[in-house]
Every structure is written in C-alpha cells, then in structure tokens.
Amino acid sequence: MQQLHVDEATRQLPGLIAAALRGEIVLITTDDQQTVRLVPLQPARQPRRPGSARGMIAMAEDFDVLPGEWREYMG
Fold first, then answer.
1. Which domain holds residue 6?
2. SS3 string of 10-75?
3. Rounded CA gap, 31 and 44, in Å?
4. What pTM did the predictor assign?
5. For residue range 42-60, what is the model confidence (pLDDT) as tens digits?
6. Considering the domain boundaries, does residue 13 fall inside one?
7. 40 CB contacts (<8 Å, ≥6 apart)?
8. Dihedral pair phi/psi, residue 18, rounded to 5°
9. Is residue 33 in some structural domain?
10. Is residue 44 part of a domain?
11. How many structural domains is the chain composed of?
C-alpha cells in the first residue's frame, strides 16, 4: 500500500497509475487525512444492440388476465 501527500502524488502520477493497474492500493492524502483512493476503471461494456434477444422471449397469451383471487383487490 502506498500513501502519499497530494504534492508528492502529483510528481509521481504515472508511477501511481501503473501501481493501481497492478492492483496495489494507492492512497492520496491532504492535511494528514486519506482523501482519495486511486483505483483502475472497469472495462467498458459492449453497447446494447436493440433486438439482440429477438426470438428468445415468449409471452403467454393470457399474460394480462387477472388471477381470480386478485379480483377482490381491484374493486
């Protein structure tokens, strides 16, 4: 674990980024308080493709029919 003051972290930023990418914990402090934890971002997800699940989902013919025991709640 590395813990540096913000002034020192500014001078060593490329090395700190590399350390975070390796999985090391990097903490940056100001006024002797831990204020920032440097962590790598997660890889971006693939963008959604409309229609990619076509044919994989089926809806029952009676999906909107209210079950008998619910009728008393619907007034």
1. 2-38
2. HHCHHHHHHHHHCCCCEEEEECCEEEEEECCCCCCCCCCCCCCCCCCCCCCCCCCCCCHHHHHHCC
3. 34
4. 0.54
5. 888 889 899 988 999 898 9
6. yes
7. 20, 21
8. -60, -40
9. yes
10. no
11. 1
